[in-house]
Amino acid sequence: MARIAGVDIPREKKIKISLTYLYGIGPARALDVLKSANIDPEVRTNTLSDTEIASIREIISDNYAIEGTLRTDVTMNIKRLMDIGSYKGLRHRRGLPVHGQRTSTNARTRKGKKRSIAGKKKVALK
Predict the structure, then answer these.
(1) Nearest 5 degrees, angle CA 27-CA 72-CA 36?
(2) Per-residue DSSP letters for the chain?
(3) 33-85 tens-digit pLDDT
(4) Confidence of residue 20 (pLDDT cuts 50, 70, 90)
(5) What is the domain extent for residue 12?
């Protein structure tokens, strides 16, 4: 099993898909890495030689922030926004959507499960 940046990537999948299992590498970046390493994106991970895996590992470690360092950077950026009191930081702090989505009806992913409001009863008409 190929191990890149401390993550075991799948063996039976194509290498262009396997690289996306690394945090910070999506489909486009995976193709860029493979192009600079001169490796065919359609080849399966288990058919790669050790030198090809080493070249992929070297390209990724030299040119991209991935996994732990990227997670740390993202967390620190959010913390900085919260500390300076920006609008985006306040939205993060309150657990609300940050990018301008509506909150009247949707946004259940950020807001969590519905909470009922006490004392709100319907008035019956006579």
Answers:
(1) 35
(2) --EETTEEPPSSSBHHHHGGGSTT--HHHHHHHHHHTT--TTSBGGG--HHHHHHHHHHHHHH---HHHHHHHHHHHHHHHHHHT-HHHHHHHHT--SSS---SS--HHHH-S--PPTT--PPPP-
(3) 999 999 999 999 989 888 999 999 999 988 888 888 999 999 999 999 999 99
(4) very high
(5) 3-63
User: Are residues 102 and 51 part of one domain?
Assistant: no
pTM, two decimals, is 0.72
Number of other CB atoms surrounding residue 105 within 10 Å = 6
| Amino acid type, 66 | I
